[in-house]
Amino acid sequence: MESSAIPPSGARSPGLSYQQLLDGDTRPVPDVLRWQSAAEVPVQKVPIERYRSRAFYDLEVERLWRRVWQMACREEELPEVGDHVVYEIADDSLLVVRTAPGEIRAFHNACLHRGRLLRECDGRADELRCPFHGWTWNLDGTLKHVPARWDFPHVDDDRYRLPEAKVGTWGGFVFVNLDPDCAPLADHLGELPRHFERWPLADRYKEVHVAKVLPCNWKVAQEAFMEAYHVVATHPQLLPGIGDANSQYDVWGNFSRAITANMTPSPHLSWAPSEQDMLDSMLTRSLDAEPALRVPEGMTARQTLAMVARMQLQGAAPSANDLTDAELADSFYYTLFPNFHPWGAYNRIVYRFRPYRNDPDRSIMEVIYLAPFRGRRPKPAPVHWLAENEDWTHAPELGFLARVFNQDTFNLGKVQRGLHAARHSHVTFARYQETKIRHFHTLLGRWIQK
Ligand code: FES
Ligand SMILES: [Fe+2]
I want to staple 141 with a disulfide (CB 3.0 to 4.6 A). Which of 24, 28, 78, 162 is the partner? Predict the structure, then answer.
């Protein structure tokens, strides 16, 4: 791993750097938290057309979505042979099917007779039968039955197998790629699996899955979750207990990582919060309520939060006792190009962002919580789709973060409106704190030019 001082320009916020904060941990710090790779990312300005033009959107479909590895579902959603999940991206639809105990395939979800979608929703079946005229395929994609077969002398079984996309798995996730000539998933992931060795995502279950359509381009949506620069204006209530401007940003190959420390004060504050203030800011208590958790004498807020999390993880996470305060208190938000955002350590969050109905001005945001478990694997949560007029608090399973997500998404439709209204040509990114977004756009530019 490349290691270099952050950031490349040397300019940084006052206050403790993340690496300095780690020096005070109550446990030995694992290498993964020490790795830094603050590579130069060339893109600092991006044409607004990337967010609003149909022509650019169409290029994304052709050159990105039809070629890149993308997360389709969890393996745990396909426990039995015949289980299937419909995965849609732009106009494409795939049927991701468990075809044998150790095998998952992805078929293009269109009947080879007159093209009906074979399935509109997830489920379990012994065969894939089209509801229109009854053409039927075996789970392995071979043609099984054509009603009035005498009328189709020109249909030979070999040429009427269901066309397939490529499938790969990592961390309990199923990835698909529509390009038959794509490189293996492992090449796309690069070093990412090494980062997650200490936090095996395959050993977790999908505890929560909430989806919502947002009135903005899919990149506007995901970029709101790739930096801590927005905290000062968007989540001011968090400032006593979040080291927003002292976050660390790194990039490796096709993925990037931000680390934002919690239970340390923001450098934007002009006053010094107490340890209890820091804890309260995260637990968002109202002024007249008793604290949900008190910082014991002689302990810091950071140690208190870590101690509680460590106790909760006993028996569900491998060696919970050895986990650092950092792994239990901080936010490690990874982005695997183009749209998959698994959080590291023991924060449960995974985000996915996609275009909605082929519309450059709308997107789907999904929040998944992956939780450790004891004993038998619990059933994965089905997708809870929020209606257009429902905000994130209509999904109580999201807990206190629902209100934070409301703050996050409040601006996004207005960003899209502003981008259409703009007479200037480019958006401008910060040199350091928007490193992840610049890295994303650097990669996107390469894909679009291919
Ligand atoms: S369209 Fe599927 S059987 Fe006719
Ligand atoms: Fe946010």
Answer: 162
